[in-house]
Design goal:
It is built from seven helices and 30 strands. It is mainly β. Strand 19 and strand 20 form a beta hairpin. Helix 2 crosses helix 5 and helix 3 packs antiparallel against helix 5. The N and C termini lie far apart (111 Å).
Length: 565
């Protein structure tokens, strides 16, 4: 492979006669690509002029030999060289390679492949499979799907998402949208969220949910601009909360763990790898369903018709068998970049999304993504040991088999254009770190001996999550003492920490103060503690005032009555 990505393929072929009265005159090769150029061939008799034809995205090359190899066991050697522009592709700052495999032809005795990549590609993130014979790949490896690899450390995307919220009712309501969340394999920075939400919270699956209040009959358009960095291995600084395994092994709609056929499969395939291999080799991808709003068949449904599967069914069947086997599993819906829809199709029609499963690794406490769909359509490329840099999580379905909906599903019926726009960037933007601000909500005057309530409001106006925020609240006089650690505060997130105090009696007004410390930042709020008689006097004054108002009203009524008479 050249530094430009152009790949020079050289095949050195030896044909051996197995019959005494026949000899090879012609050799033909069918390549599953139309990106072939500069074909050169030669044998011991000199240059061979190739015959080349392209049809249906495939290239057919035919060679007529210059020499004859006559006799049993005689060999004819020749070489074929061509340039292939579809093997290596750069997307963002990642170079990806895919070397096609070969058909399992019994006439092929030995077949080995070697690969040379320029150092400018950067470090090898993965090569799957690894060479099986020295530095070469064997026939057995190549008939199982070819070679896939990537070079680089992380992939970066700029994503713009559009959401349309609508309250068709006559009473106010709060609605949520799912933003792409940070996970073990991706880091998300919210660059812009217009209009700002009331708050952003997370659920048990780790989804980022932005909450918006909507008035009666109100429609609201929301735009989110986020930058995402995708990694091949789990991030060391990612904080994975504990899960309740029973929540991720239950039967759900589309995941029929109590179906007899699924329970039998769970006994036979009891590890994530075995389940992945079974699903990826049993189901058949239906390309006719890709661009249609076909109904989701679910795990039990696709077992009745294995030839009607798209990514939803590959994912649902993996999850159902895993859950039936006691392995926590869930669904991820998002965007997956592909430069070859025939090998790596996208099959959710809502702005061309993709679905894949995750299983929970008890040893690492990490949700591990796999893609049995692409394993099937690529002919066996390993999407189990490592995924790739192309899968971006938009929403996670674990507690529910369908909710929350990912970006791309909040579409206005009359809108044209796409709601999901993804672009590669060479580097992570950064510069939009967490930004913590704090406010104190508490009365300016409080009554002695009475319960007083307030709150410390902690906001993150930055684009990334803030972690382990230590909050301490003290008051003078010593009535309020609160400490709390906010484990994670999401971008645009708001946390209200209640504060409650009862201040002792005094005969005169006393000054009071609340002191709040958030990590290394301090702020204060001053107030006045009024004695009990002040409250009593205030009540009497209000009573006298109300009595005076009532007296004046009576006088006015009597005056108007006497005037009429």
């Amino acid at each position: 492979i050249a530094p430009t990505g152009k790949t020079i393929v050289t095949q050195h072929v030896t044909l051996t006669n197995k019959l005494p009265n026949f000899y090879p005159q012609e050799y033909s090769l069918l390549l599953d690509s139309d990106k072939i150029s500069n074909v050169i061939a030669y044998d011991d008799g000199g240059v061979i002029t190739p015959s080349i034809s392209i049809k249906g995205g495939k290239t057919h090359i035919a060679l007529i030999f210059n020499v004859k190899a006559i006799g049993l066991g005689k060999s004819l050697k020749f070489s074929l060289r061509y340039e292939h522009s579809g093997v290596a592709n750069k997307a963002g700052n990642i170079w990806e390679i895919y070397v096609p495999g070969v058909v399992n032809d019994p006439d092929i005795g030995e077949y080995t492949v070697s690969l040379a990549v320029p150092p400018t590609f950067g470090p090898a993130a993965y090569l799957t499979p690894l060479p099986g014979k020295g530095r070469s790949w064997t026939k057995e490896q190549m008939i199982r799907g070819g070679i896939a690899g990537a070079y680089g450390e992380s992939q970066n995307f700029d994503i713009t998402l559009s959401y349309t919220l609508n309250n068709s009712g006559v009473v106010p309501q709060t609605q949520e949208i799912a933003l792409p969340p940070s996970t073990a394999y991706q880091n998300v920075t919210v660059e812009e969220l217009t209009p700002p939400p009331e708050t952003v919270t997370s659920d048990a699956d780790g989804n980022w949910l932005a909450k918006y209040p909507l008035g009666p009959r109100q429609t609201l358009a929301v735009t989110a601009k986020v930058s995402v960095s995708v990694f091949l291995t789990p991030r060391k600084n990612f904080m994975q909360g504990a899960i309740r395994e029973e929540d991720y092994t239950k039967a759900k709609e589309f995941w029929q763990t109590d179906d007899v056929q699924i329970t039998n499969l769970a006994r036979q395939f009891s590890t994530p790898r075995k389940i992945y291999d079974y699903v990826s080799t049993t189901l058949q991808y239906d390309f006719d369903k890709v661009n249609s709003a076909a109904p989701r068949l679910g795990a039990a449904g696709i077992l009745k018709d294995p030839a009607r599967a798209v990514c939803m069914e590959f994912t649902d069947l993996f999850i159902a068998i895993a859950r039936a086997a006691g392995i926590p599993a869930r669904r991820v819906v998002g965007y997956a970049y592909t430069n070859n829809p025939k090998l790596r199709p996208l099959s959710l029609v809502s702005d061309v999304l993709h679905a894949w499963p995750e299983y929970y690794d008890r040893e690492t406490n990490i949700w591990v993504p796999v893609d049995p769909t692409w394993a099937n359509t690529t002919g066996g490329v390993d999407y189990f040991t490592k995924l790739d840099f192309n899968h971006i999580v938009f929403a996670i379905n674990g507690s529910d088999s369908s909710l929350p909906y990912p970006a791309g599903y909040y579409r206005s019926p009359d809108k044209t254009g796409r709601d999901v726009r993804v672009e590669f960037t060479d580097t992570s933007k950064g510069g939009k770190a967490a930004n913590i601000t704090t406010g104190i909500e508490f009365p300016q005057q409080v009554g002695a001996g009475r319960r007083v309530e307030g709150a410390v409001v902690v906001r993150n106006s930055g684009g990334e999550s803030a972690y382990n925020i230590a909050v301490t609240v003290l008051s003078e006089p010593d009535s309020i003492k609160t400490t709390e650690t906010i484990t994670e505060l999401l971008p645009y997130g708001v946390r209200r920490i209640p504060i409650v105090g009862i201040f002792s009696q005094s005969v005169t007004s006393q000054p009071g103060q609340i002191r709040v410390r958030v990590n290394d930042t301090s702020l204060t709020h001053s107030f006045t503690i009024q004695p009990l008689y002040w409250l009593v006097g205030l009540g009497v004054s209000l009573l006298l005032l109300s009595g005076l108002v009532a007296f004046k009203l009576v006088q006015l009524i009597i005056w108007k009555t006497s005037k009429k008479q």
